[in-house]
Amino acid sequence: MSWLLAMVLASASCANSKDRATSNKTPTAQHSASSHATPGNAPPNYAVNDTLLPHRELTIISQVLGEMRRINIYVPPGYDASPNARYPILYMPDGGTKEDFPHLTHTVDGAIRAGQIRPIVVVGIENTKRRRDLTGPTEVAKDKKAAPVVGGSAKFRRFIRYELFPKVMGQIRGDGTTGIIGESLAGLFIVETFFVAPRMFDIYVGIDPTLGWNAGELARNAVERLKVGSWQGRALHLSSAGKGRNDGNSVYVAPLAAALEKHPPEGLRWIYTPKPDEKHSTIYRATKLAILRWMFPTG
């Protein structure tokens, strides 16, 4: 399938201080196999603002994880005034109030008010043991030293599916469309979930995902996984930062994009946006608005 070139909007800003695993305006490869907003009413600099917006909070005593989990929920303008309206729901790991939740919801809110995306709900999952929850099994000694406990992604996925989903669906008016977005280790978790549970979400977004985990196993075995998955109606957005191992994960993400290009799954809409001029620490903020517009267009 041919590469279709597009320019991706970017709004650069400084990085947040959240613990990260280290790993522009460039051509974009896009592929497909098969009104509560008031335009012009967005606050200035909404794509880079870290101010915590009013939001809802809930806690879940997780039987799966054996701990309490805090969840932050943003609802769009007009949500309470329109009791019959339903909305797509965007889930985000790293969704604590001192993590990525404030800056992402500020961008979402501003984009809705500016008429750039349709109204959505954002559900942020605050971290407790980040490297435990967002990593899968590994045979690499260096990976195993990254934290006292790693490799808990399957259990974290069960928490989301069997405890978080029902809780959110009982309190939020969703329209049946779900997405998940995250960067770095959160992106790793999202790509893994895309492969092992492709029907769990409708839209998967991995921003400079840490695909070097377990010696790059997800990308190395992508072709075999793509042959057996159920991809109809799913969407995947991949991006990478930098030109090498020192400033991003491009060396690990590009092979996955190549596998998708060579073996495009039927029914999957996907896009890969390499950002060589961004760094691992800047790519989330620089690309999130363009990604949101790709995920939730107004048309």
Can you put this structure into words, describing what you see?
- Helices cover 31% and strands 20% of the residues.
- By secondary structure, it is of the alpha/beta class.
- The protein has a nine-stranded mixed beta sheet with strand order 1-9-8-7-6-4-5-3-2, with helices on both faces.
- Helix 1 crosses helix 9 (283-295) and helix 6 (213-220) packs parallel to helix 8 (250-262).
- It is globular and about 50 Å long.
- Mean pLDDT is 86; it is low at 1-30 and 32-45.
Q: Please give the order of strands in the largest beta sheet.
A: 1-9-8-7-6-4-5-3-2
Q: If you compute it from the alpha carbons, what radius of gyration comes out, rounded to the nearest whole angstrom?
A: 18 Å
**Tally of helical segments:** 9
What percentage of residues falls in helices of 4 or more residues?
25-40%
Order of helices and strands: EEEEHEHHHEHEHHEHEH
Poorly predicted parts: 1-30, 32-45
Q: How many DSSP-defined strands?
A: 9
* Assembly level: single chain
Rough outline: globular
Whole-number mean pLDDT: 86
Distance between the termini: 25 Å
Q: What class do helices, strands and sheet pairing give?
A: alpha/beta
Proportion of β residues? 15-25%
How can the largest sheet be summarized?
Answer: 9 strands, mixed
